[in-house]
Amino acid sequence: MDRGGWAWVQDKVNSFWEITKKDLEDKKAELRNKDREMEEMEERHQVEIKVYKQKVKHLLYEHQNNVTTLKADGEMALKLQQDEFAAREEELQYAPPPLPVRSTPHTLHTGRPKASIRW
Questions:
Q1: Is the dihedral of CA 96, 98, 102, 106 positive or negative?
Q2: DSSP secondary structure letters along 72-109
Q3: Average pLDDT, stretch 31-60?
Q4: DSSP state of 117
Q5: Strand, helix or coil at 113?
Q6: Distance, CA of 62 to CA of 48 (rounded, Å)
Q7: pTM exceeds 0.90 for this model
């Protein structure tokens, strides 16, 4: 090959080198952009997880508060019923005995009048 042929080959190699070098720099820039994008996405994801955990924590607190309130209300209602039952039981204990029921031909043994049959 002559000097012109070598120069042409050298120009082609240099051109290929420059194009490849530019492509490599472009790919590195794309990779940096993708890395930055991934980091931002990871940060947003961590924020979403934190917000979700706070919501769950709040819901658990509300649930526990509701359970405690309902339990206290149930215990209070039970206590009131027990007190009312005890008061009724005491009333019945000291109440005068019921009057004896007289049996007449027109009453059943329950004390209610018999149904009369009419013809």
A1: positive
A2: HHHHHHHHHHHHHHHHHHHHHHHSPPPPPPPP-TTB-T
A3: 98
A4: P
A5: strand
A6: 21
A7: no
